[in-house]
């Protein structure tokens, strides 16, 4: 099913700034919107805390009245109420997991304005997508596992309670200054697919086939696919091909340096057939982290003996030529043994050459080592940095440069549109914003950009 783009001004559907819910939560700026809801910054007037409030607002089923209340079209009451019930049910379940590392804490939930709300801890930081862009687009697998390990552990516990996230992606993982990752934006309650096209609320590349169309049986394996796609984005620098491209046979490609065991685990997580995919997050985690198990027990006794012998030679070797020759001999012997300890060859056993998928070709080695220089900054990372520093001309230049080299141009389109808007180049800003809208109408920051663009265009009339 093709994505259904609902072209509605965010000002027509969001709660006005300053609205107060339950005489307690004052609504502030917009944090984001998705197919099932709108998330705001809010202020708890009782505890005097900044929080995040998610409003149940399924696109295509919900509309805002002038007084702020939410209503659904006649005849759609049943799917609207069913979805809202699931939204509150999941909020109630997640509230019991408060304080667990890796997932956002749910502090309160209630009905108001004809809909439902979920109050969550406000998570400071930037999204994993932004973090990756700052790092040049991708990171090593070990670092990705270190970052996402707590998220995977927490999601496994959420599944044990019968809940699904259904929207795991780099946009929904926040990274704090101390590199702690938190999965946000829970509450994507299911609604009737007869009324609301699921493809309108899914992120291309991260949603498995069972989330498209009616009758798809969803379970923990659904979030496993999205986790695999998120790991793929971390280690490759771009998301997996979307469902249409994969169905046509487009290969999943990995850059050199990704361990074969990691590639195999990610490929299994991204199986299109749910029956061939990991059935739960725990199984995926075990395959990703089992490489280091039993490492200490695999040390050959010969290597340990040689290491002890080398220690003795080091104590005496400076005194005699015999000691020096023995040290050299011992080092050669240990060098022959240590590689099997540090890089166990058994990791690749059982995989045949035919199992390997297409890889990104490795760059040719440099002719001369030359002086050590810092790595060149990627165009998109440079554009983002210049934009944050207020250099709009530079940000526009480098975001345009990035558009010609990125497989996923969404971030570059957003920076280009924002920069052009700030420079008063409204035609270019509109062109880039509309290109991003066609690719991903729910991309974070796009709705605010479109609102600002309309204001600017209105002022010019």
What key phrases describe this protein's structure?
TPR-like_helical_dom_sf, transferase, Kinase-like_dom_sf, three-stranded antiparallel sheet, 461 residues, protein serine/threonine kinase activity, ATP-binding, 4 domains, single chain, six-stranded antiparallel sheet, 14 helices, Transferase(Phosphotransferase), domain 1, Phosphorylase Kinase, domain 1, alpha+beta
What is the element layout, followed by pairings?
Elements: E1 20-21, E2 25-33, E3 37-44, E4 49-56, E5 63-64, E6 70-71, H1 77-95, E7 106-112, E8 115-121, E9 126-127, H2 128-134, H3 141-160, E10 173-175, E11 181-183, H4 220-236, H5 243-247, H6 260-269, H7 281-289, H8 301-316, H9 321-342, H10 379-388, H11 392-403, H12 410-422, H13 426-439, H14 446-459
Helix pairs in contact: 3-4, 3-7, 4-6, 8-9, 10-11, 10-12, 11-12, 12-13, 12-14, 13-14
